[in-house]
Amino acid sequence: MTPLHKHPKTLLVVVAEAVLEKSLIRDAQRLGAQGWTLTEVRGANHEGVREGAWEADRTIELKLICEPKVADAIAEQVLTQYAAHYSVALYFAQVEVLRPERY
Amino acid sequence: MQHVDVVVFFFLLGVFARLVKSDLRLPEALYETLSIYLLLAIGLKGGIELSKQPLMALLPQVLACMALGFVIPLLLFPLLRALKLAGADAAALAAHYGSVSVVTFAVATAALQRQGIPYESHAPLWVAVMEAPGLVAGILLARWARNRSSANAGSTRPATAWGELAHDVLFGKSVLLLAGGLLIGAVAGEAGTAPIQAVFIDPFKGVLALFLLELGLVAGSRLAEVRRFGVAVLVVGLAVPPVLALAGAALGWALGLSTGGVAILATLAASASYIAAPTAMRVAVPEANAALSITAALGITFPFNIVIGIPMYIALAQRLVP
User: How many Cβ pairs closer than 8 A exist between chain A and B?
Assistant: First the structure.
């Protein structure tokens, strides 16, 4: 079996209030993300617990795999546009993909 | 205990479960299902009644309800500012009270039915039109407060995206399902809806009880927050509803509504939105403290209204329209 050819990409994960879902996806696509994965999550930080018990208490985790530059641009946009007033967490990870043109 | 509606006990059970840190948690999908059911059922019930009357005759009522929803935040805003709330916080909180709580409405109608007090059966129409005006007023107040504060002069807040906001409110779950139910009920009428009455009309109160159990859990979790915001939020959450109820009752009386109708309009005026308003305010007034508004609306006002407020508003209506 021939070894799989892997390509490095950046995974950007944004955890945010669910109300930001539409804006975040719109910004990510505008800045060059080709796809996204989204899940509803629960959690807490120093600002308090978000249990997702009803509409106004939902939290999303948005995963974006893209070029490092695109990930940086999206992260910067999230920080400048939303971080001041919304509860947002961001982190990067280096990942490997098999079909780089898809990201 | 005779005068307490049975559904209220379910709410109290939810609060209790939360306070004793029970692991009780309704699945999110069930919460969603129950809320969709309640909105549709309330709409349908009102729609069936609508099919029996001339629509134009209801126009004055509808316009008056919308005006009430719009005026409430304008009246509350200076009061909240006097309590030393920041401009954005006062505007967002005022918007919560301008908008309405569908479940509070449902509990009020259940109480009226149980006591055999008739009310205008098209009342769900009032609920549907009262959701948005208060939100618009709140956003306008927040913008006004933002423009006035010179400290904000340097910041570049984008203009309110009214189009998107209108879309989210008008086509959001609650207005869409309420209005959709009203329309379906009005078009299909009594005979047309007969086959689905076994699902949408008869089990209504049981579903409401289950939904209130869940809301008890949620409200219970907000109670701990009350301490965080101090006395001001407690005063607002407890004192604002009865005052607004007086305004709602006065309007209902002026419109010549029945005893039950006056009680419902008082309840709607006193109720605070905890679904549409938090979301709309988060989008339009992000600088406002969301936890403050939710604690007042859901943690204090909602329990107050369903346990103490509604019986008071019904008694008030019986005095006004004996």
Answer: 40
